[in-house]
Amino acid sequence: MTCDDLLSRMVAAVDETVDDPDERLAVLLGLIRPLLVAGNETTTRLLAEAVALLCDRPAEWRRLRADAAHATRVTQEALRWCSPVQQMPRRVTCATLLGGTALPAGATVLVSFASANRDEAVFDRPDRFDPDRADLHRHIAFGHGIHACLGAGLALLQGRIALQTLAARTRRIEVADHEPRYLPGFLLRGRAQLPVRVQR
């Protein structure tokens, strides 16, 4: 029996190129884990934050209901405002000076997407949620350069479609009374739950 799905194709490709069974398993796990986190955890966390932001801003919710295309800008601004991936370690390849601090080659630095996305030197009024901001495209929720997220296009599509569908099927949505609690984590940020009340 053969399967024609992504994981089966990955297994077949690794089987053809890696001889050692232990190394084969390590390679597969190295490929599958990021797919599960990047394609699932981050999108779930983004959507919960986007819904919470819209619940706190009824005018934005009404606008989204009236104009489905607005979901693209809401998704982008939610990514800037509360990036699911907060930071990422990177290795310094050559000695450099950054912000007055000497970084030796081989050092590990922690790049904070959360901080960069609220940089007032880049974003006008960075602590304001504003899907109409002119500098919206400058957020780095998906990283940058050769380290940019391969799934960025899919994540934007998922966010846009989810918000459009929710707005089309829901007249009103509000966060139910609860104490916001975030899942523990260093690199990822997201709510443990987001109970809502919905009027159709």
TrEMBL record:
- GO MF, any single term: iron ion binding
Keyword Aminoacyl-tRNA synthetase on entry: no
Pfam families for the chain: p450
Q: What is the lineage of its organism?
A: Bacteria, Bacillati, Actinomycetota, Actinomycetes, Micromonosporales
The identity of this protein, by name, is Cytochrome P450
Task: Please name the InterPro entries in this protein's record.
Answer: Cyt_P450, Cyt_P450_B, Cyt_P450_CS, Cyt_P450_sf
Q: Which UniProt keywords apply?
A: Heme, Iron, Metal-binding, Monooxygenase, Oxidoreductase
Q: Which N-terminal stretch is annotated as signal sequence?
A: none
**Which family does the entry's similarity section mention?**
Belongs to the cytochrome P450 family.
Transmembrane annotation, as ranges: none
